[in-house]
Fold this protein.
Amino acid sequence: MRAMIDRGPTSGAPDWNTLGVALHCPRCGYDLRMLPQPRCPECGLQFEWAELITAVRTQNECPLFEYQWRRRPVRSFLRTVGRALLPWRLWSRMSLAWEPQVRPLFVLAAFMVLLFAVCSLGVEYARDACAAWQFTLLTGRAYPGPVWRPDLVAHVGEVTGHLLWALFVWGLLQIYQQTIAKYQLRQRQLLRVIVLAWVGLLAWQTVSRLTTTAFALYLALLHASRGTWYPLTWTREQVWTTLLPYVVFTLSLCLGLSTYLRIRRGWAMSLATMIIIVLALIAPVPAITVATGSPSNTWTRVLTSLWPGIEYVMEKVFVAW
Ligand SMILES: [Zn+2]
């Protein structure tokens, strides 16, 4: 009778005597040994025995950076960034049974910052060089001053803004102590969700910057061939290059909590977190503007240096409102 339950088709519980791997609940880490049913008594997670065993056995073959960072750092980095760009694919393919690896997650974030910084500087150089070329072409004079004047303070401010954003999200998710306790969530799982969503945010910033710059350079060439000037400022593109990455980040956070961690109110939790952050940042703007009598005050200056482009978004929002 006992043997029938153990190998019964409904539960599919493994033969514990011959099973060579240790099985733990993928969400809360509870030891599943000798459990007759595929349901964690600690956090309530439903799972399939065969799926869990396969995931545990194949974890080290997973192509993500977390598992391949020592063996194939560049390839696994690019692959992970590629997946982070498309959150719905990232989280539907991510197995909860793949134990999050804290150290490579931080290395991944550092690599992403580096890639983002290099691309941002490159894009700035391309725009400055193109503006200088336009000037020489249209005026017949040499460009006065250096061609490239990198605004390093602005770049540092932007990276700081991104890091603060990740910290805000992590801090605000801690408010949901009841949910964290109910699902026995471990911090390393929240860390994985935040880091991968954040890598997606920076990747989208990088991609949107590269594509809009390529397009702007193309327009500049087109104008130059007609002997006219095309201003290479960011303003035209800033609204969507600022908004889109944050929309994708929010989506990734929602899917990470609901699809990957299987939290029932994952969507509500993520959306509320995003709304609180945005309101906390933007709500003081009209009040301080009224109080100081100028829209250019310390608060708005700090906001725009940390999240460049936010002024264009706010302008659109307040004008529409
Ligand atoms: Zn569990």
